Amino acid sequence: MLIKDLAERAGVSVKAVRYYESRGLLAPARSANGYRDYDAADVLVVREIRALLSLGLTADETVPFVECLRAGNDRADVCPASLDAYRLRIAEIDERITELSRLRGELSGLLADAESYRTEEDA
């Protein structure tokens, strides 16, 4: 299938497909006229990539999942490397939550201090 057909079936733009290809996530065959020739498996791969990107993974972090699908698995997340990628992303999210909680506490303290200062000044 042509790139525009793949993009339409997978629900992404042609630009996104080209980007995935540039990152090595897709490797289409070339037809005699030089056009990219994608197959049905590529639709699944692109959908998986899109889903993983929506969870905050980078294109590079989707590689284990793509490789898992390309190895013939029904799911992209049943391979050990995919599970490791999930674990790593969860750890990154936990770190962000901790940092955001710290910042929230600091800002709340500054707000409380500023509000009490203004109240004292108004009195």
TrEMBL record:
Coiled-coil portions: 83-120
Entry keyword annotation includes DNA-binding: yes
Source organism, top-level taxon: Bacteria
A molecular-function term among this protein's GO annotations: DNA binding
Domain named HTH merR-type: residues: 1-68
Keyword vocabulary terms for this entry: Coiled coil, DNA-binding, Repressor, Transcription, Transcription regulation
Annotated transmembrane regions: none
Pfam families: MerR_1
Protein name: MerR-family transcriptional regulator
Organism per entry: Nocardioides simplex
Taxonomic placement: Bacteria, Bacillati, Actinomycetota, Actinomycetes, Propionibacteriales
